[in-house]
Fold:
Amino acid sequence: MKITDVIAHHLTYKAKHPYANSFMYNRSRSATVIEVRTDNGLVGWGEGSGAPDQGALETHAIGKSPFDYEVIYDGLAQGGRNARAACGVEIALWDLMGKALDKPVYELLGGARRNEVTAYASGLFKLEGEDHAKSLYDEASRYRDQGFLAVKMKIGFGREVDEEIVASVRKAIGPDIALAVDANCRYDVATAIDVGRRIDAYDLLWYEEPIAPQDVDGYCEIKQALPMRLAGAESLQGLRAYRELVQRRALHLIQPDISIAGGFTEGRRIWSLATAHHVRTVPHMWGGIVRLAATLHWQATLPDDPVALNPFPCYLEYDMTENGIRTDLSPTTFLLEDGMVKIPDAPGLGVEVDPEKLAKYAR
Ligand SMILES: [Mg+2]
Structure:
């Protein structure tokens, strides 16, 4: 089996109801879905951040076997210029290997340690034109009614607003549903600590990205000052970008994204680095259906650490925002059942892409 073509489908979905985190309104969502074709007719799907240029693909991918995935990824990612774009190709190679061997990707990765993961509803943004605390109360109440065991909300809107909206969401979900907060790097250290102290009373699962991931000293200061878990680093690419954060244990848990950090290949290297330093890996997932499928396979394989009768769940970020690239691109769905999402067990990633929908969302 040899790779003959790598096709990048640049997709955009326009939001009907814009929603904001701490720094911008999302008015559209985009993704690059990668299609890798082979000389035996098999097609693999991946999702990355942009596409490698044709020259890099000719040099490192075309004519090679998908089973050379690590050589291909390292070739495409070298120098960093194509690194994010290489993720989509790398994920598609795993889809192809699984299809060629008639096995789900998790089996190729060493086997599943679980057949379902605890999902957290990732939403609770600021909705344009609506009362912030009231709309979050209503949205969080829906997640409670849908059976979620955990939710994540956006903060970073200022000390008083954050305190008000965290209280509103906690009131809606009650005491038993886990609550994480995400400030999307919009605070300085002093504000991050102040906000953390104000919202600590609401029993937080973790406090995500109060400051930029490059400010390792800042994270160490915040970690000293606050009692709750700190999470972050969803936007970093490559093993070395995580090195100092992990070595200095600046975060309790890192959140590499399979479509940004470097596919399964680099993602597993990052997990190894983190686990050697007793730092937990809880992947980030905010994107389309192919990224969701890949994330599920990766999370199936991540060991509990420590192994326990009641381990810290390997939480899946279950994106609840409006995005047709996740909800409409494929006939495949990964539905919530009793707060859990099942790991797909069809060959490859277990997700098919509808060519008509690819055309519908092409930009
Ligand atoms: Mg985040």
